[in-house]
C-alpha cells in the first residue's frame, strides 16, 4: 500500500509543483470536477525499515481525452511517483485517474449491469437452495437412483416421475468443452469470459463460468473445482476455477463502516468514500471502496496465502465499483512459477461484476 505512505492527510494540501494537483486544478476549472481511480501499477525495490524517512517525486506521464465513459465525458490522467530513502529508490507507482463530468442519470429504471437471473422452478429450487449453502446438488431418481442434471420432473433413464432427492457433489471435475465469449455484451459480465461444460466424477455435466481464468490457460481435460459467487441475498451462482495453483476464495462483507474506516486508514479523505450524498451528486449510487483499500486487500490476500514471500510488484485495474452493502469475493490463480518468483492473477467480484483484476509478483 505504497501510496498511503505519503498521502497528504485530512488537512494536508498538495505541494505547488505536484503534477496531479496541477492537472486536477486545470480540469476542475474546465468542469471535470469528479474523479475516480482506474489503474495502479506498483514496483517494490525493497521493504522499508522502522525509522526511515521517505521523500516522493512525481511527474506527469500522460493526459488522454476527452473520452466518453459510462460515468461521463472525461480525461485520463497518468502520473508516476517515485519514493526515496536517503536518495535510494525504494518503490515506484504509475497511477491513473479519470477526471469526468458526471453523466445524467439514466432514464430507464433498470440497472443494465444487473446479471441475468435463472428461472427458479419447483424442479430446480433445491439446486439454488444448495448453492446458497455452498453445496453443489445433483438430482437423484427415486426409483433407479440415476443422477441427472439439469434437474427435471422425470427420470430420463427409467421414466419415473417425481423427485427422489439429491446427492451433494464433490465439487471437482474437468473441462469437457468450453467457449470464449467475446460478443455480444452480457449484463453484469466483463468480456471476454470463459464458459465451460464441466464433466463431474458423479457422471453428469454442468455448464458454468470460469471467472478470472485467462482463455489461453483453459484446455479440455484441465481439472477444475467449484466455487460459489454470491450475487445478492437471493442468488448464489456456482462457478468453476482451474484446480492447479488455485488460491482459496476470500469473501469480504463491504459494510458502510468498512468502506469509511478503510478509507480513513489509508489517509484518503475524499468525500465519495464517506459522504453518501456527495457520492451520489458526483455520479455514484453510494459510497464505495477506494483504490488504496482494494490494493491492500489484493496484497493481503496473496501474502496470507504465501506468508514467507516478499511482494515485488502489484498491478491493479479497477472495473465496476464496489459499493457499501455489497460483498467482495477474491479468487486467485498462479500464472507463472519459475521457482524463485511467482505471478498470481487475482479477481475480485461483487454483485455488479469484476471490481478488480490484478496481478501480484512475489519472490519466495
Short description:
The chain is mainly beta. It is built from 5 helices and 17 strands. It has helices at about 20-30, 125-130, 255-265, 275-280, 290-305, and strands spanning about 35-45, 55-70, 75-85, 90-100, 135-140, 145-150, 165-170, 170-180, 195-200, 205-210, 225-230, 235-240, 245-255, 310-320, 325-335, 340-350, 355-364.
Give a written overview of the molecule:
This protein has 364 residues and is mainly beta. Helices cover 14% and strands 41% of the residues. It contains five helices and 17 strands. It has helices at residues 19-29, 125-132, 256-265, 276-281, 291-305, and strands spanning 34-44, 55-68, 73-85, 88-100, 137-140, 147-148, 166-168, 172-181, 193-199, 205-209, 223-232, 235-242, 246-254, 310-318, 326-337, 341-350, 353-363. The strands form three sheets. Strands 2-3-4-1-14-17-16-15-13 form a nine-stranded antiparallel β-sheet. A hairpin with a 2-residue loop joins strand 11 and strand 12. The radius of gyration is 23 Å and the shape is elongated.
List the helices and strands and how they pair.
Layout: H1 19-29, E1 34-44, E2 55-68, E3 73-85, E4 88-100, H2 125-132, E5 137-140, E6 147-148, E7 166-168, E8 172-181, E9 193-199, E10 205-209, E11 223-232, E12 235-242, E13 246-254, H3 256-265, H4 276-281, H5 291-305, E14 310-318, E15 326-337, E16 341-350, E17 353-363
Antiparallel strand pairs: 1-4, 1-14, 2-3, 3-4, 5-6, 5-7, 8-9, 8-11, 9-10, 11-12, 13-15, 14-17, 15-16, 16-17
Amino acid at each position: 500500500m505504497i501510496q498511503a505512505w505519503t498521502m497528504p492527510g485530512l488537512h494536508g494540501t498538495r505541494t505547488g509543483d505536484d503534477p496531479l494537483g496541477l492537472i486536477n486544478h486545470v480540469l476542475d476549472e474546465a468542469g471535470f470536477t469528479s474523479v475516480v481511480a482506474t489503474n495502479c501499477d506498483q514496483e517494490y525495490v525493497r521493504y522499508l525499515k522502522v525509522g526511515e524517512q521517505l521523500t516522493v517525486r512525481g511527474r506527469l506521464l500522460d493526459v488522454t481525452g476527452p473520452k466518453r465513459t459510462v460515468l461521463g465525458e472525461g480525461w485520463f490522467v497518468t502520473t508516476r511517483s517515485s519514493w526515496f530513502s536517503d536518495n535510494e529508490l525504494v518503490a515506484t507507482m504509475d497511477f491513473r485517474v479519470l477526471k469526468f463530468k458526471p453523466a445524467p442519470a439514466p432514464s430507464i429504471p433498470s440497472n443494465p449491469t444487473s446479471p441475468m437471473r435463472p428461472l427458479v422452478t419447483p424442479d430446480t429450487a433445491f439446486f439454488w437452495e444448495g448453492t446458497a449453502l455452498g453445496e453443489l446438488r445433483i438430482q437423484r431418481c427415486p426409483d433407479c437412483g440415476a443422477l441427472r442434471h439439469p434437474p427435471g420432473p422425470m427420470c430420463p433413464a427409467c421414466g419415473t416421475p417425481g423427485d427422489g432427492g439429491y446427492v451433494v457433489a464433490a465439487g471437482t471435475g474437468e473441462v469437457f468443452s468450453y467457449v470464449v465469449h467475446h460478443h455480444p455484451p452480457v449484463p453484469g459480465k466483463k468480456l471476454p469470459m470463459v464458459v465451460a461444460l464441466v464433466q463431474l466424477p458423479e457422471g453428469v455435466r454442468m455448464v458454468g463460468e470460469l471467472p478470472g481464468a485467462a482463455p489461453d490457460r483453459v484446455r479440455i481435460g484441465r481439472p477444475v473445482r467449484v466455487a460459489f459467487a454470491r450475487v445478492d441475498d437471493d442468488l448464489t451462482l456456482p462457478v468453476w476455477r482451474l484446480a492447479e495453483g488455485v488460491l482459496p476464495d476470500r469473501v469480504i462483507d463491504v459494510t458502510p463502516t468498512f468502506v469509511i474506516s478503510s478509507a480513513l486508514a489509508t489517509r484518503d479523505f475524499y468525500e465519495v468514500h464517506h459522504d453518501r450524498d456527495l457520492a451520489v451528486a458526483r455520479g455514484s449510487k453510494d459510497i464505495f471502496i477506494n483504490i488504496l483499500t482494494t490494493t491492500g486487500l489484493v496484497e493481503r490476500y496473496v501474502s496470507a496465502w504465501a506468508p514467507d514471500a516478499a511482494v515485488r510488484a502489484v498491478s491493479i485495474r479497477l472495473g465496476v465499483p464496489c459499493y457499501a452493502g455489497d460483498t467482495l469475493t477474491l479468487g486467485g490463480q498462479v500464472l507463472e512459477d519459475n521457482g524463485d518468483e511467482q505471478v498470481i492473477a487475482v479477481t475480485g467480484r461483487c454483485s455488479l461484476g469484476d471490481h478488480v483484476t490484478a496481478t501480484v509478483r512475489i519472490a519466495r
